[in-house]
Amino acid sequence: QVQLVESGGGLVQAGGSLRLSCAASGRIFSRNVMAWYRQAPGKQRELVAQITSGSSTSYTDSVKGRFAISRDNAKNTVYLQMNSLKPEDTGVYYCNIWDVVSGTHSWGQGTQVTISS
């Protein structure tokens, strides 16, 4: 099993920045994809950004140019640097790791991000 612990959420004004971190522990295979999802009130959870174990990245259109995902494989940690934040970025942000070998997904408990206008 894999455990994920997120940190770094909070309340900031529009235009501000936050950095989320997610540390993974447990049985982690080398081939995996780490990702950040978010869920706004009343909406479905959506994929925000993902990064492969080879550091290939992809982003949802609404955050391109503002968010940057990165990872430290030695620490099994993934980061999400969020700049130029907007009120519509508000939501609970969840860390996810997809083990490519077994096909399993693991989730963190979520961290609240609130952007005030």
Can you tell me about this structure?
- Helices cover 0% and strands 57% of the residues.
- It has strands at 2-7, 10-13, 18-26, 32-39, 46-52, 57-59, 67-72, 77-82, 91-99, 105-107, 111-116.
- Strands 2, 4, 5, 6, 9, 10 and 11 form a 7-stranded mixed β-sheet that branches.
- Strand 7 (67-72) and strand 8 (77-82) form a beta hairpin.
- The model has no long low-confidence stretch (mean pLDDT 96).
What is this structure, in a nutshell?
The protein has no helices and eleven strands. The protein has strands at residues 2-7, 10-13, 18-26, 32-39, 46-52, 57-59, 67-72, 77-82, 91-99, 105-107, 111-116.
Topology:
Blueprint: E1 2-7, E2 10-13, E3 18-26, E4 32-39, E5 46-52, E6 57-59, E7 67-72, E8 77-82, E9 91-99, E10 105-107, E11 111-116
**Fraction of residues in helix:** under 10%
Overall average pLDDT: 96
Strand content: over 45%
- Count up the helices: 0
User: From the alpha-carbon coordinates, what is the Rg to the nearest angstrom?
Assistant: 14 Å
Count of individual beta strands = 11
The biggest sheet, with number of strands, parallel, antiparallel or mixed sense and barrel status, is:
7 strands, mixed
Low confidence ranges: none
Q: What is the 3D shape?
A: globular
Distance from first to last alpha carbon:
40 Å
Structural class: mainly beta
Note the run of SSEs as H and E: EEEEEEEEEEE
